[in-house]
Amino acid sequence: MSLLSIENLRTHFFTKAGVVKSVDGVSFDLKRGEILGIVGESGSGKSVTGFSIMGLVDPPGRIVNGSIRFDGKDLVDMPEPDMRALRGRRIAMIFQDPMMTLNPVLRVDTQMIEALRAHGKWTDEDARQRCRDVLGQVGIPSPDERLKSYPHQFSGGMRQRVAIAIALLHQPDLIIADEPTTALDVTIQAQILFEVQKLVAEHNTAMIWVTHDLAVVAGLADRVAVMYAGRIVEMGTTEQVVNRPLHPYTAGLIGSAPSRNARGTRLTQIQGMAPLPMNLPVGCAFRPRCQRASEACSAAPDPSVPEDSQMVRCHYPLRDNHDRGGDA
Amino acid sequence: MTVFIIRRLLQSVLVVAVMTVLVFAGVYAIGNPVEILISQDATEAERAAAIARLGLDKSLPEQYLAFLGNLLKGDLGTSFVFGEPALQLVLERFPATMELAICAMIIAIFIGVPLGLYAGLRPDSWGGRTIMTGSIFGFSLPNFWQGLMLIMLFAVILQWLPAGGRGERGEFLGIESSFFSWDGLSHLILPAINLALFKTSLVIRLTRASVRETINLDYVKFARAKGLKSSRVIGLHVLKNIMIPLVTIIGLEFGSVIAFAVVTETVFAWPGMGKLIIDSIFQLDRPVIVAYLIVIVFLFITINLVVDILYAILDPRVRLSDQKA
Ligand SMILES: Nc1ncnc2c1ncn2[C@@H]1O[C@H](COP(=O)(O)OP(=O)(O)OP(=O)(O)O)[C@@H](O)[C@H]1O
Ligand code: SF4
Ligand SMILES: [Mg+2]
After folding, report:
1. Statement: residue B256 has pLDDT above 90
2. pLDDT one-digit tens code per residue, A121-158
3. Is residue A105 less than 8 Å (CB to CB) from chain B?
């Protein structure tokens, strides 16, 4: 049985200017110990997907439809106290900007120990010991001293390690990592990736790794989902999606992806702009930017599985090798 | 830290110097105190004697230099009207004003912060909107008018509270204050509310704005993602951060509460410094005006100093040593 199973999730924001369909029909499964990479341009709904799973979508946003089953229970209708008991203990999240994730006016030990005590009784002694251990695991030298520091005394990389340590405190079943290394420089990014991968493998933790950078995902994830305008347009094993993309958008991403060792630039080289979520084009949202588009594309494509377990939403998926590799 | 305090003191000396020059020139421009102080039918000799006694026979720069000389000896001059040392007159009234100001600030904080929190957390609720509308009234209705309305309602119509004066003082741990007697408190409530209304509105709006801003920040969301109860997220993560702007503004506003007290003290016949300064201005009692302003300047300096220290305690990113005063 899968640990997480999302079915037709729709999360919309009801703003004064109109309804923003940030997540509009997302479905995927995740097994224990599996790493799913979610890639897509800015605004495609990656973070909102993560917050929906955490039950942290704030008004004017709301999950309007769909189900999120975690370990057999539906999180969408779960009462807040039960949801709170899951947060941080069984599902943890790491945020994008390490400079903003830790509270600037509270010491690191306060912020770690409260996370422990949110889910049970801990003596001072035990709590500190646990914090020291986890800080050590994520590669923070002299954790004892560091515990007494304030966030501003840490570098960005160190802060993100602290945030990761907090996520690991309870050995959760699922970690949602929302672009946790994007703001860091390449060497630190590589170190953190390596350590996280090791820790996750040790504890059989499932992980959703959100990123702009297909190269990061290629080295980390078991499977990849490509998001565009609130939908998953392609999903398959990392090998399938990276080497044999079916969707013109994915092919465009790969064509514009930086090489593996180069610094991860943002994926904006596909011609045209990401659509504004307020007025998406009718039919396939990628149509205005797609070279393969035709009449048929003014009707929204349904998901299809033309190749073994590789899902795509496109009327004209790339089928032969001639088509593939950055012609979008 | 020491350097910091010394720098502050030097600043205040400069402010006092400029201010005294202005007061001397100002009072001189308005009129001659002798006209007010000496009765119409005094003889020419009596007049001359009085002028000489008050030191008004000398030229203005000479008067100012004499004042500075006395100031260095710690003497701020003698009131033209009361014939008593001006500083002593002001300081005698000081506790009454402080009592009023402190009480007003307490009201503003204990009512303003919770209401602002509520309005910030539930901006679209009925309660949140009502609070914000109410705060607009607190802002825009003139202070003296609010005072008169309070007297009308609670003293004249309902007759629950006295309309003015200071009442008895009680004693506690050797401190004498209206806080420690029922009669004193009953006299204190109305003027304190009057003085607090404007500040309460300010605190409400400031708290609400800070909450709205803080609540959407990543670290608050991260705190929730850890599974903390919302009482802790708001009571610690949000509140500790909004304390920083709140303490700064409330501290600085404390000074202006004392200044505003002039109106309230007049409306409620509260025998504080504000009432004294109004009377002294009418009588062109220059030494008292100067003494009052000097006390106020030092009060502001002290308040700013305390605010800076609190700021550094609340915000670990700030250290007084690397701050330019
Ligand atoms: N509170 C909100 N109110 C209105 N719209 C919102 C809100 N939060 C998110 N959105 C909208 O939802 C869409 C998806 O946002 P999301 O943050 O999930 O994008 P993302 O894929 O994570 O992008 P990025 O890579 O920049 O983080 C965006 O168009 C955004 O404008
Ligand atoms: S459905 Fe049509 S417009 Fe959309 S990606 Fe496929 S070919 Fe392009
Ligand atoms: Mg995001």
Report:
1. no
2. 999 999 999 999 888 888 888 888 889 889 988 888 88
3. yes
Query: Cα–Cα distance between A289 and A248 in angstroms, integer?
Result: 10
- How far is it, in rounded angstroms, from Cα B237 to Cα B217? 11
**Smallest Cα–Cα separation from B256: which of B321, B304, B323?**
B304
The pLDDT of residue A324 is above 90 = no
* CA of A231 relative to ligand 2 center, distance in Å: 13
- Quick count: other Cβ atoms within 10 Å of Cβ A214? 25
* Continuous segment of H or E residues that includes residue A175: strand A174-178
**Count of domains for chain B:** 1
Q: Does A264 touch chain B (CB under 8 A)?
A: no
> Element (H or E) spanning A210, and its range?
strand A206-211
Contact A112, A143 (CB under 8 A): no
What is the CATH number for B153?
1.10.3720.10
Domains present along chain A, CATH in parentheses:
1-90+173-188+204-328 (3.40.50.300)
pLDDT confidence of residue A269:
56
Q: Is residue B164 part of a domain?
A: yes
- What was the pLDDT predicted at B173? 67
The answer, yes or no, to whether any atom of ligand 2 lies below 6 A from the CB of A289, is no
pLDDT reported for residue A260? 43
Q: Would you call the peptide bond into A104 cis, given omega within 30 degrees of 0 as the criterion?
A: no
Tell which wins on pLDDT, B77 or B226.
Answer: B226
d(CA A220, CA A214): 10
Domain that holds residue B172: 89-284
Q: With beta carbons under 8 A apart, name residues in chain B contacting A107.
A: 316
State the distance between the two ends of chain B, measured CA to CA, in whole angstroms: 10
Inter-residue contact A58 to A230 (CB < 8 Å): no
CA distance B12 to B298: 7
Question: Would you state the pLDDT for residue B319?
Answer: 64
The complex's ipTM works out to 0.88
User: What is the 8-class DSSP label of residue A14?
Assistant: E
B40 in a structural domain: no
pLDDT in tens, B174-220: 677 777 777 777 788 888 898 889 899 999 999 999 999 999 899 99
**What whole-number distance in Å separates Cα of residue B320 and Cα of residue B306?**
12
CA-only gyration radius of chain B, Å = 24
Q: Is the pTM of this model over 0.90?
A: no
Name every residue whose Cβ is closer than 8 Å to that of residue B5 and which is 6 or more positions away in sequence.
B305
**Inside any domain, residue B291:** no
Nearest CA, atom 1, ligand 2 = A314
Which residue in this structure is represented by tokens 């912020």?
A111
Identify whether B238 is part of a domain.
yes
- For the cut 80, the answer to whether the pLDDT of residue A94 exceeds it is yes
Beta-sheet strand order (sheet of A231-237): A91-94, A174-178, A206-211, A35-39, A223-228, A231-237, A310-313, A303-307
Percentage of residues in chain A having pLDDT higher than 70: 91
Distance CA B244, CA B3 (A): 24
Across the interface, whether the CB atoms of B229 and A118 are under 8 A apart is answered yes
Residue keyed to tokens 């092919």: A251
